[in-house]
Specification:
There is one protein chain. With 204 residues, the protein is α+β, with helices and mostly antiparallel strands. It is 42% helix and 15% strand. The strands form 3 sheets. A 3-stranded antiparallel beta sheet has the order 3-4-5. A two-stranded antiparallel ribbon has the order 1-2. Strands 6-7 form a two-stranded antiparallel sheet. α1 packs antiparallel against α2, α2 crosses α3 and α2 runs antiparallel to α7. The radius of gyration is 17 Å and the shape is globular. The N and C termini lie close together (7 Å).
Length: 204
């Protein structure tokens, strides 16, 4: 997997939207979801990529073997966009900027601060499975997903994930696709939308 974008970038805001949809569940088919109340898209790139990794047709996450590294790279890009981390000759260096309020970003930043500058690849490979669980738990706390405990083969603990607001996921997917339009003016592209479009390709 290639390292995330590390050149200085200007932060661009992104606001979420809300919506409602509903459908009946049919036996033998993947479970569909219902949007409950008002909700906004998460600001973090990692959280957005987690939602986009969920396959509505199969009712499960896609590409789980690479999801940890993808989300870990996304958190690093978030930290770089926020000014918390800078590139220092190919190494991630923590700056003096105020710590992020996002719990996942704050936890990863503390890792970087404790260990010191390391190459980006080191931080992408480090504890990436834990990052998946952290992002998942934060989305569950925000009531954007529902996690139901289950066991694989009746032995291994796992979690069945349901997206509570499928409209938000569709909006994120549309924004990512819109970023890739040839007619789109580059200066008007949101950097988080651009990262969502680029990072999965870097990990393939």
């Amino acid at each position: 997997m290639s390292k995330p974008v590390v050149t200085p970038l200007r932060r661009s805001g992104q606001s979420g939207q809300s919506g409602r949809s509903g459908s009946a569940r049919r036996p033998g088919r993947p479970r569909k979801t219902v949007a409950l109340g008002n909700a906004t898209a998460p600001d973090g790139i990692a959280a957005r990529l987690f939602l986009l990794s969920w396959d509505p047709a199969k009712g499960k996450l896609r590409g789980q073997a690479k999801l940890g590294k993808l989300l870990r790279a996304a958190v690093l890009v978030d930290l770089q966009l926020n000014g918390n981390v800078a590139d220092d000759n190919g190494r991630a260096r923590v700056t003096t900027a105020a710590a992020p309020t996002d719990p996942v970003q704050a936890a990863v930043l503390e890792e970087l601060r404790a260990v010191g500058p390391r190459r980006w690849r080191h931080w992408i490979d480090r504890r990436n499975h834990l990052t998946v669980w952290m992002v998942r738990d934060e989305l569950a706390r925000a009531q954007l997903i529902k996690v139901e405990p289950r066991r694989v083969l009746g032995i291994f603990p796992a979690g069945r994930i349901t997206v509570r607001h499928p409209l938000i996921r569709r909006q994120l997917l549309h924004a990512a696709h819109d970023t890739l339009r040839p007619s789109r003016v580059v200066s008007r592209v949101d950097l988080r939308d651009a990262s969502i479009a680029v990072l999965p390709a870097c990990g393939s």
